[in-house]
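Hi U.,

Before I forget, here's the chain from the pilot set. I'm dumping it here mostly so it's searchable later in email.
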Amino acid sequence: MIGITTTHRNLEIQGVSMGWSFLDYSTGSSIAFSLIDYDINSSFARALLVGFINTLFLGVISVSLAVLLGTVIGTARLSGHRLLNFIAALYVQIFRNIPLILQAFFWYAIFANFPSPRAAIALPGSVFVSNRGIFFPRLNVEPWHFAIALIVFVLGSVIAIGWARRKGQGSSLIGVVVALAVAVLIAAAGRIAGTPLFDLPQPSGLRFMGGMTLIPELGAAIVAISLFGASYVAEIVRAGFLAIPVGVIEAACALGLNGWHVFWRIRLPLMIRKILPTMTNQIIWLMKATTIGIAIGFPDYFGVVANSINHSGQTITLIFLLIIGFWAINMSISFAMNAINRALALPGHKK
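Structure:
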């Protein structure tokens, strides 16, 4: 208590104020990328919400890509094909041994040197690539409905898999399909009235109208974190496969299972169970690595808080909110991964 009182008095002497009233004040500054409505007249509270959502958006995409790519590369590292094994090993040695911030600057330089909007590269599906960003079609659905639909699908699938295992059923496909159907209904309920299902980007002079924009800063951060994280995930996956007892594989082969069934029904499930604790730590680390966005100008939660400190002077309060935000994100990841671990644990081995 004495320490808090002394700190508060020293801050007052230095002219550093503390409180929450500034959250209602207008920021007077813009944010380059926002998934929700925001302008210079918006409050600091809304700016912080924009930064928090941006961090979640960057983290979900980057971590998902890192896990998918890392699983493929980790599996390829154990392949009997020499060329495939060499390429996978080379990938890991390159991306794992270069600092993440250096990779972020490299990919940002690549994105910044794409053609101008007038000479944008047109890809199938109304996708355009330019130095102003990557423009692609957008669903005319309220963002909150889309986010809730995604959460329902993920949680519903996890519950369906766990329920199928407890009941001794071999397949949880029906439960996953039901979760997908519910998610589609939730997303459809949030469709913006009087608009087409897809909003397509259209070239208009030096810019594009409509659609959704992946700004160069966001694109560089996604590529850097995904490629860097995949190199670590690959090693975790490889270690998981190697940790499976050889006798288990030999027993599966002795039962007459072919190579694909041994991999899909024996090796892959056992590998997932073994790597979940380590993978949880890696996913949390990658989520914290999204703060690298501030180095290349992406307005993530860290960047928005830093900008808000410059405009409001509320250093202590805003850093406290920054800590709370990342703590909530990582605790949510830990809770979800522990739930998955319990759902996949072998009967009699649950802790």
